[in-house]
Design a protein that fits this description.
Shape: globular
Helix content: 25-40%
Protein name: PAS domain-containing protein
Organism: Lactobacillus porci
Order of helices and strands: EHHHEEEH
Number of strands: 4
Largest sheet: 4 strands, antiparallel
Pfam families: PAS_3 (PF08447)
CATH topology: Beta-Lactamase
Structural class: alpha+beta
Number of domains: 1
Domain PAS fold-3: 10-96
């Protein structure tokens, strides 16, 4: 969950913490500077912010792929599905699901290989 006005990270589940190579929410917050921009690989940030803004002009959802740089220096391709909502406590927030594309590709390749051996 990300606050819309300043891109501040409000919550991250254990899966996101692990994907970023961190061991705790506090470590993730320190590594990213508490912002969504801190998750997005620097070379992709301008494009990502531009595309999200363009998509939000057409509605409340965004779908985008980009790269992240984990705390240990790995570069991972991810897919992001977000929805902008008005939330009573925090105001306008994004609920975002970020999937590791490389992990999905690996799982698909393994499943395909297993199917061929059966």
């Amino acid at each position: 969950m990300i606050h819309d006005g300043d891109h501040e990270i409000l919550f991250a589940n254990a899966e996101m913490i692990t994907m970023m190579g961190c061991t705790s929410f506090d470590e993730l917050m320190n590594y990213t500077g508490r912002t969504f921009d801190g998750i997005v690989y620097e070379a992709d940030r301008e494009r990502v912010n531009r595309e999200i803004d363009q998509q939000l002009e057409r509605g409340s959802y965004d779908y985008i792929d980009y790269r992240i740089k984990t705390m240990d220096g790995q570069i991972k391709e991810v897919f992001d599905n977000g929805k902008l909502v008005d939330e009573d406590r925090f105001g306008r927030v994004f609920y975002v699901v970020i999937l590791d594309i490389s992990q999905l590709k690996t799982r698909h390749m393994l499943e395909t290989a297993l199917e061929r051996t059966e």
